[in-house]
């Protein structure tokens, strides 16, 4: 159920009973979703800063092959968080001072096809982790920080302009609804004394972004077309606009939330404040490989259009700027270029 290269050879029950006296260490982090985009960047950051890092991954999953992470020194625990007992036991075993909860069913599109599975991992597993963290805080009287990966999708198809922490929560997808639930539950546990930070993350990308997401699909597809391995890219609504940031910047924002000395926790919108269309992303992707005349290389397939989708999404991260001193460092064009170049480099290496 839980495997760690560094764990002693005791039964789980014995190990947990031995942990009754364990106290959370503020420099010990548990990162769920450590093989995912954000979890891997955050873990690398924590390891570089000398933290003891424990990472939970879903057994059978793997890291990005396009840009693999270096997790040397991390204690890795195979744990399917849908097993709420295993999730709670993992928290009790590690007794972390900080939990970065980044695991989740992260695709809005897929949540329409698998709403129940999305709810199990996003809503139920998060509940188990919050409650286990609260248990550690209650037992020891020590501060436990919980950074919850909330999402801009909690705001749904709003036309409220630039969205911030005061924007009404009104999700418009199963994914958004699960994130809204954990966002609100996080605030409930915060009121009980757990230092919960809801990171209201707008879209953020990197070479580690999966190809099931439109940005990863574009980067991968453009590289394949540039190499002459494919003729076309098939996309849905190219007019949709998103506020796209650089994933390591967003990991940095969550790190800053965790190391604040404030005991209470807070909600933070993390966004760049600028939106671009999917069309802009495609154009920037083809520009990265020197193709200006790209329209004939893209076909529109209505099968890729979501049932309900916000047309524009821009966040206002003024609160994060003021309280965390956070600001994005990588601009849109550079993000797209980095992604396409990584896919190009990976294919060259594979030859
Ligand atoms: P990601 O790359 O998809 O990583 C999520 C990780 O969670 C994956 O490694 C996934 O493993 C793991 N996971 C899923 N179900 C699990 C389970 N039952 N038990 C254990 N692990 C499980 O997503 P990300 O981009 O890093 O995003 C991190 C978090 O931020 C997610 O909660 C996401 O919803 C949220 N968020 C992301 C964005 C964004 O633009 N990236 C925006 C807003 C919010 P598998 O690969 O095996 O599923």
From TrEMBL:
GO terms for biological process: 'de novo' GDP-L-fucose biosynthetic process. Its EC number is 4.2.1.47. Its cofactor is NADP(+). Keywords: Lyase. InterPro entries: GDP_Man_deHydtase (IPR006368), NAD(P)-bd_dom (IPR016040), NAD(P)-bd_dom_sf (IPR036291). Pfam families: GDP_Man_Dehyd (PF16363). It catalyses: GDP-alpha-D-mannose = GDP-4-dehydro-alpha-D-rhamnose + H2O. One of its GO terms (molecular function) is GDP-mannose 4,6-dehydratase activity. Signal peptide: none annotated. Residues 30-339 form the NAD(P)-binding domain. It is an enzyme of class 4 (lyase). The keyword Phosphoprotein does not apply. Belongs to the NAD(P)-dependent epimerase/dehydratase family. GDP-mannose 4,6-dehydratase subfamily. Catalyzes the conversion of GDP-D-mannose to GDP-4-dehydro-6-deoxy-D-mannose. This is GDP-mannose 4,6-dehydratase. It comes from Williamsia herbipolensis.
